[in-house]
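Reading group handout, session on sequence-to-structure problems. Before we discuss, look at one worked example. The prompt was deliberately terse, the way you'd type it at a terminal:

> structure SRCR domain-containing protein

The input record follows.
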Amino acid sequence: MPFCDRGFSDDAAVTMCSLLGYKYGRKYYTVAANYPGAEETPAPRRLQDLNCEDRAARSGRRKLRGVDDERDSLWSVLAASVTRGSGGSRAAQHPEQRRIATTAAGASTAEQAARDLSEVGSAADASGARAGRSLLAVDENGEYVPWLPAQPLQGTIDASVKRARQCGFRTSNLCGPDGPLAAVECSNKPFTTPATVAFPMPSPPPPPPDKSESIRFWSGAADTSASGSQALAGVVEPNLCDPATSTDCIYGRAELLVPHPDDPSQQVWAPLCSVDVAAYPNLAAQVATKACAMLWDYPASRSSGVFSVSSYTGAPFALPPPGSEVVDGGFDPAAHAFWAELPEPDLSSEAFHGEAAAAEALTAGKRLVQDVPGLRVGPERCASGALFAFRCDLVVAGRRR
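And the output record:
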């Protein structure tokens, strides 16, 4: 599990080399070590905040479970690129390597670690500049996804070498699988060559605009889950669902920001018409999922503590009949010049193998609901005669909203 370079100090490099049995240490920079690429960094977590305490005064010696020789505890769990400071770069060798016997089943843990690090060192020597690496983590829709560590969030490295210290760490979101990762250069003699310096790397492109800027949401009267979203425009109108006469007003409706049909350089807001929920439940579910992700800027909002966003569909909101009187505060169809309607899947087409495939086609490579191929925007009222009804369930830092 490699450390992130950010926050990994020169003192941490000295400590790391000391734990490995060397007298001197410093940070080391090379493209291969600091930016190995996600495909070459199989460790599921990144680390930060190396902190050690002296264990000299503690009684007894403790082994790391599963390690034959406690002197090799750190070596067996540390994944790092180490170069020898005396002379040119070469593969790291465990200081106690000669004292470790090979078991009948095969090489010891430390020997295997030495071979692993040897391979890393060889790759570092021959790497050179690497082209085509993306420094931006994106999902299948090309959307920025902040890298977050998996559980557990902290742990210890039990290194039993001279002047043994017990070291702890935390998992990190300071870097992603691509890096930049921390590397150290260790030696038993004082360094006589200048230290390597961090090289400038291209800045990642900025994330796309927040998805919540492209949707407006009127939540259900009995629903508070959308209260913190910037896309919340109000509560669904009583002539669509009246909480005085219905206890099921927990679903809301949405409007999408779409290009003007006659002038694509302009944008207009259009109510989202309902799909046939009974005939295409999977399609409806996917529409709700995409709309909720827009409402909460998910998954980019994970960096602010949003753990997950789930969605639910409700009975569509029937539009008021044409020419009917609309009281103040009610939904007035005449106030909307354009409507947004998703196409129904052609189940006879070879492109769709059942309704589930149609739902999959909705989200394939599309970040916004309005990016779905075939979305119709026009002055005609919804052909279904109803608006799409849905709600979102948000989990933030362990709290469900």
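Points for discussion. First: The helical segments are 10-19, 31-34, 73-77, 109-125, 281-295, 355-363. Second: The chain has two domains: 10-187, 211-400.
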